[in-house]
Specification:
This protein is α/β, with parallel strands linked by helices and 505 residues long. The protein contains 20 helices and 14 strands.
């Protein structure tokens, strides 16, 4: 086995009573076995006591040990302090980082045991858990309110994240380099909820986690955690991460792991914009799906014996297999002759979550009308509702933040309400036949279960009360009026027929 370069990272704040003991308790045989591949880093978060003085004295008295001491010029917070250590780990090319606390709450003697799964490539992350043997936590002096608070918060977080950890709130952690390199830890909270942020990131990215039991010790250390604030922050962070990952109603870079924006989620199995569109296409119809993506809707229409023409700027293999023909088109630069279509009939044009991406939507709709109005197709259009209550409340608090998906996708060039979209369609020569509000895609957030479908029903109930306020998306069906050229041609023809009849009389 290749020897790993290991960093023992100690976060310290007003730890003068414990810092020397913590250093003494790091197993010397572990240090000697890794003599040339280990370093101890103490990052003091601008303590007002003698933590740095005692740490530096320890370095002098134990010159054989590779110890580095940093002191932040200003207090960075518990999370901000960790960011410095992890950046140091990456810059100095360490393979593993071990997080210890300078207050002695976590036993350094357990380092050799905890690091073993990573050394053996059986885990990417190891958490020292005080809750594997729950009775030991109480025996170790954990206050009763902290014990029950820890378990309650862990239960909620496991449910929301789909994880199965015994404890979310231990600060004894070991990370491999690929974990720290992958996750955007620099955007995490600077407070104590940093530890929750990093767990969310680890779970979301599918890293292998192993928990090992550690003893619980509560001594005379000073607790700097505001319990109520801490609980609120970690629950808020966990919930918002799910909202961002699944519903895209919120955006934070710390929960953004996608390298591109070409992600098209299948929403065909529940009440959604996809379901709305599919239900409005009859069997054996001829359909043009504009902005078809990977062909999620096209595949469903193929099963309804429809002939589908798929149009998108990026043609993906999934689309090709479901379509009679595909065409690569930049929708911002279309003309009447752009669309290659030679069928005798056209029943439906789909424009699902597309109109918001088009810079000049007025010209786009006018061009479509000129090209296809002779077929008299039905148009099915869906887009996000910027007047959705979550957006209104966000604006009330001064929040308007673009993200990678959802209503405020950063690629959206235009934002719509029900009234503004209907006005755009009418002015462009379309007759609106149906308008409907689409609920939040709860099954994407909570999975396909009774709870998510109950929330869908509840959202639909409120949509009936106020469509503009409670609809997550707008869904409209419309008919094209004949193009101006066609109207002129028909008018001229009618006029000629009248004149001929007059002459015949």
């Amino acid at each position: 086995m290749n020897q790993k370069k290991i960093l023992i990272f100690i976060v310290a704040y007003n730890a003068e009573s414990h810092i020397e003991s913590v250093l003494d308790r790091i197993p010397r045989d572990f240090l000697s076995d890794n003599k040339n591949n280990i370093e101890i880093l103490i990052v003091d978060d601008s303590s007002i006591d003698n933590t740095v003085t005692l740490s530096n004295k320890y370095v002098v008295d134990n010159s054989e040990l590779p110890i580095t001491v940093f002191k932040n010029p200003e207090n960075q917070g518990y999370g901000g302090n960790q960011k410095i250590g992890y950046l140091y780990m990456l810059k100095q090319n360490f393979d593993i980082v071990i997080l210890l606390h300078g207050d002695g709450q976590y036993a350094p003697e357990y380092i050799p045991t905890l690091i073993e799964p990573i050394l053996e490539n059986n885990a990417d992350v190891v958490f020292g858990s005080r809750m594997i043997n729950k009775k030991d936590a109480l025996k170790g002096g954990m206050p009763l309110y902290k014990y029950f608070g820890n378990q309650f918060l862990t239960f909620i977080q496991n449910k929301l994240l789909g994880s199965n950890l015994s404890e979310f709130h231990s600060g004894y952690r070991i990370y491999s380099r690929n974990v720290i390199k992958k996750i955007p830890f620099q955007f995490n909270s600077n407070d104590f909820d940093f530890d929750t942020d990093i767990i969310i990131q680890i779970v979301d990215n599918g890293f292998k986690i192993q928990e090992l039991s550690i003893p619980t010790f509560y001594g005379d250390e000073i607790c700097n955690v505001n319990g109520v604030k801490y609980a609120w922050n970690i629950l808020k962070s966990t919930v918002l991460s799910r909202i961002q990952r699944k519903a895209q109603l919120f955006y934070s870079p710390k929960f953004d792991y996608e390298e591109d924006n070409n992600i098209y989620t299948d929403k065909t199995s529940f009440d959604s914009s996809h379901r709305f569109a599919i239900d409005r296409v009859n069997k054996n119809s001829t359909v043009i799906d504009i902005g078809a993506g990977p062909g999620v809707v096209a595949r469903k229409l193929f099963k309804k014996s429809c002939i589908v023409y798929g149009i998108d700027e990026y043609i993906q293999s999934g689309l090709v297999s479901s379509c009679k023909n595909t065409q690569k088109v930049d929708l911002d630069f279309i003309k009447e002759n752009t669309f290659k279509f030679k069928e005798d009939r056209l029943d439906v044009i789909l424009l699902l979550d597309v109109i918001e991406h088009i810079k000049d939507a007025d010209n786009f709709l006018f061009t479509l009308r000129n090209r296809f109005s002779s077929y008299c197709p039905k148009m099915v259009i869906t887009t996000g509702n910027i007047a959705f209550f979550f957006m209104r409340i966000s604006l009330l608090f001064g929040v308007f933040q673009y993200g990678k998906k959802g209503i405020l996708d950063k690629t959206h060039t235009r934002l719509y309400t029900f009234s503004s979209l209907k006005r755009l369609l009418k002015d462009s020569g379309y007759v609106i036949e149906e308008t409907r509000g689409i609920p939040i895609p709860f099954p994407l957030i909570f999975g396909e279960n009774r709870f998510s479908h109950f929330l869908l029903s509840l959202n639909n109930f409120f949509i009936k009360i106020s469509k503009g306020f409670f609809s997550y998306q707008i869904a409209i069906t419309a008919r094209m009026l004949p193009s101006l050229d066609l109207l002129l041609e028909r008018s001229s023809l009618e006029d000629r027929v009248k004149n001929e009849n007059l002459h015949m009389q």
